[in-house]
């Protein structure tokens, strides 16, 4: 004992488990599945309701899921053929839900879980052949797990275009007649392979009686015509016909015309030309022909056109064999020297019916004709120069006469020492050369040298010097210089017939030269430039 009364904290002094500081335990079942998922505790003297001195077990694997607790049964479907339909179910006991498992066993509708094609709702197909032609025209189907007899998974092809007609099926051959020429007769048959019957086609090939299906005129029963030409004049006198498909040689569809007026005479036929001659000028020669076209021969007409030789049937003088004349003027002096004639129908140009006169004395000389004037010079002093002229009119040329009057240069036809070009006697007061005056010595050479001609220029082998008559028989010195003044030729010549020929110059070089001509009697000279080629 003690002076003080001790504390009395024991809440139940008859229960050794209840005392201050005692720990009490209670299981926590959050998901109300009767399995604790955890434990909570309190410290108290008195035992709280539901609490105990020992902590209860906590087997609940997920205390927030009432479906997960120890001993729970989980189910899963078995799909052996992987067709998504289960054929059986298997189960396990476990707290936690295994992957793919569920609380309820799945249905197992798969009628054969070893065949992936058999499952609930599978569609099975079968072809329908209404016309028993072995080709399906339609398909029917049914839904079943197991495969019905005759059905398959795929719908069969339905190529039969008409399943109510046994003649229409794929690969059927159809025939049609070909009438290329539209004459209603077939010439050939064509066929097609098709299910449906094409328009106009049939199962049997039609007959092909047309002998030529490219010609609408050739068909069975056609009538062909041919003309009869008894006289072979190409015109028919009658017609015959035949019935045949093919066109017989020479026959046609239309009966030919029969215009022949006499089919026994080959000359009489339509369009025949008949001829008759026309003689307008009554010279017994036809100038033209007229013709008619007729089948029968007109009176007086014939098949051949008569000759029409009359060149002018309006002129009785013109006919075949007529003689025409024309004067011949060979020398074109307008006078005829002879006459020629031709036999011709038409009058040739210039010809006439009568022969013309032929007065021309020489028709090969145009200078000789009637009325021609002839001239002759008179040389009274016989110095060969005429002092006057006389003339006559005659057709033929008289001896010594000419057509042109000769010159009369003789200034004194009574003195034979006076004439043109006569040697002039200087300073004698007489004009011997008829130049109109007497000549002095110096003037003579000066004047005469102006008339000297030197040719050719350029020269080759020879130089020709032509001198006036007054220098006849006078001696000249001929000198040739080169352009350097060197004397290359120095010769003396006598003037014979008023000409000097300087030859042998071929050895001179080709170059220009100076020729000097000197009158040795008077010493008068002239120079001229020449070129040697």
UniProtKB/TrEMBL annotation:
Entry keyword annotation includes tRNA processing: no
Alphabetized InterPro entries for the sequence: Put_metal-bd (IPR021655), Secre_tail (IPR026444)
Residue ranges of domain Secretion system C-terminal sorting in the record: 456-522
Signal peptide region: none
Key word Chloroplast present: no
Domain of life: Bacteria
Alphabetical keyword list: Signal
One Pfam family cited in the UniProt record for this chain: Por_Secre_tail
Protein name from the UniProt record: Putative secreted protein (Por secretion system target)
Species in which this protein is naturally found: Jejuia pallidilutea
